Amino acid sequence: MNAIEENDFVRGFRTAASSIPKPNAILCISAHWLTNGTKVTAMSMPPTIHDFGGFPQALFDVQYPVPGSPDLAMETQKLLAPTHVDLDDAWGLDHGTWSILKHFYPEADIPVIQLSIDYGKPMQWHFDLAKQLQSLREKGVLIIGSGNIVHNLGRVDFGRINDIGYGYDWAMEARTYINQHLVDGNFQAIIDYQKGPSAMQLAVPTPDHYIPLLYSLGLKTKDEELSLFNDALLAGSLSMTSVRIG
């Protein structure tokens, strides 16, 4: 619903976008494109995918008619070798991508591609794979990992769905645990989250929404700063904590 609402998170996205140079292109790793193997969208005009149900029609009416970039897709494919990457013309941009970029760049004038998440691979593999994308950043490509660090839909308090700052005790514990490791630069503890406190098992019942964070962290260089924004829980079992690198 952030896609069509005006709230603190949306304002946080806009502030983040205004504080960085406008990119030449965008590569997004979304929690909503899980595949067997790795794929990258390679069409010239990716469709806006409404990969959800049960929401107001206004959300289904949203379009983000941004161009794709077959050239960037092929460059990404080469950079990730020897990992085999399929050039995909069947997916598009899912809501993990457009619901954020709609606020970052509402003009939809920057080419966007998506990289899928090979769901069969371990956490360390995703972190290491991200490092191979570093040269894209040097060419003005903004790389975004889109998910949620705390994401337990089964325990959402729908009666407080808009209650920003409200989190269960375990959600607050998990948020504090991850945030501390982010600030300290202890990324190995974040990769090995399953070895953390029991609160992490509740915060990350499945790793789909967690994995995009690992791609962002894998791209951080030694001298870059890391900062947090939109750092709040809501509805008991969700967080919108966002990480900026550089």
Brief summary of the model shown:
It is built from 10 helices and 9 strands.
Q: What's the structural blueprint in terms of helices and strands?
A:
Elements lengths: L7 H11 L6 E11 L2 E4 L15 H4 L9 H10 L5 E4 L6 H10 L7 E7 L4 H9 L2 H5 L2 E6 L22 H16 L2 H5 L6 H6 L7 H8 L7 E4 L3 E2 L3 E2 L2 E4 L1
Parallel strand pairs: 1-4, 1-5, 2-3
Antiparallel strand pairs: 6-9, 7-8
Task: Explain what the structure shows.
It is a single chain. The relative contact order is 0.19. This protein has helices spanning 8-18, 57-60, 70-79, 95-104, 123-131, 134-138, 169-184, 187-191, 198-203, 211-218; strands spanning 25-35, 38-41, 85-88, 112-118, 141-146, 226-229, 233-234, 238-239, 242-245. It is globular. The longest helix is centred in the last third of the chain and has 16 residues, at 169-184. β7 (233-234) and β8 form a beta hairpin. It has ten helices and nine strands. By secondary structure, it is α/β, with parallel strands linked by helices. It has a single domain, classed as LigB-like (Protocatechuate 4,5-dioxygenase, Chain B), CATH 3.40.830. It has a three-stranded parallel beta sheet, sandwiched between helices. The model has no long low-confidence stretch (mean pLDDT 95).
